Amino acid sequence: MSIFSGIWVPLITPFADGEVDHAALRALVRRYADAGIAGLVALGTTGEPAALDEAEQDAVLATILDEAQAHAAARGVDAPAPAPAPALPVLVGVSGNHTASMKERIEQLNALPIAGVLMAAPYYIRPSQAGIVGHFMTLADASDKPVVLYDIPYRTGVRLELDTLLTLAAHPRIQAVKDCAGSLDTTLALIRDGRLQVLTGEDINIFNTLCLGGSGAIAASAHLRPERFVALYRALSAGRLDEGRRIFHELAPLIQALFAEPNPAPVKALLAAQGLIRDELRMPMTRAGDALVARLRALEGLDRIESHAAA
């Protein structure tokens, strides 16, 4: 049974004075583990991996894995030597358009206690569907870990056609897809086929995808109110449609606001407003605008809290 279900948080990379803030990153891992999320994504798009050099990427991943294991140990989870998988699964983003280099990276990751690798189609060069199949098959062959495909054509410039996805589903290590293609027909066909677990990557589609029979979500907006996202998943998984609908309607304004400007700027702004991180990104990403920050603060009631504290 594949583990790729539930609510997964694609972790941001916190910065402080231009450097990775590893203390804040550890605190975020603990926060989401305590909230009951199903897993974490390290070095996904939300984590700004393109702005990190190789050493920084390795250090970020090491911190996340170490804290996930430390959290498990603190809760009494046995961890047999020598290299136990962390209690909280960690999926690792591997991006690029050079198949050989990505293969080398995956071979390095094979030695780590990760849950799998998340891979998008080669960006910018826009290969044929046959080229995409060959690319993913080569990388899946090199991986000792499960593979999650990432279908996000508005970033890569090419979509994974349904026939391509169904062909790739035959590979034993390709187990899931992060679905950002915006095609209801494709989403439904993959769910009905049943070989790939379908995790929506479009947060506003969480309710729809789960009701159709999807497995869960990789949701940047679950950085905020993670317990409520977990409650949404649990309600719908248990068939409590009315409860799930109420929770989703409660979350929808926040989800919409968090994607009003390029991700992860709004997420970082609101986490910073809550005192969890500094509001820092690396160029070419910029901080969320003042108007959006005010809207986000109002949605989370932060201004009311501060006014009450001041009084």
- Number-wise, the strands total 10
What quaternary form is this? Answer: single chain
Measured as a percent range, the helix fraction is 40-55%
- Unreliable residue stretches: 307-311
Give the strand order of the largest sheet, numbering strands 1, 2, ... along the chain.
Answer: 1-4-5-6-7-8-9-10
> Could you name the CATH class?
Alpha Beta
Amino- and carboxy-terminal Cα gap: 54 Å
Mean pLDDT equals 93
Count of discrete structural domains: 1
Output the structural class.
alpha/beta
Q: Biggest sheet, in brief?
A: 8 strands, parallel, barrel
CATH topology: TIM Barrel
Cα Rg: 19 Å
Tally of individual helices: 13
EC number: 4.3.3.7
Pathway: Amino-acid biosynthesis; L-lysine biosynthesis via DAP pathway; (S)-tetrahydrodipicolinate from L-aspartate: step 3/4
Protein name: 4-hydroxy-tetrahydrodipicolinate synthase
Active site: 150, 178
Q: What does this molecule look like?
A:
There is one protein chain. With about 300 residues, the protein is α/β, with parallel strands linked by helices. It has a single domain (about 5-240), classed as Alpha-Beta Barrel (TIM Barrel), CATH 3.20.20. Helices cover about 45% and strands about 15% of the residues. The protein has 13 helices and 10 strands. It has an 8-stranded parallel β-barrel, surrounded by 5 helices. It starts with 5 loop residues before the first strand and ends with a helix.
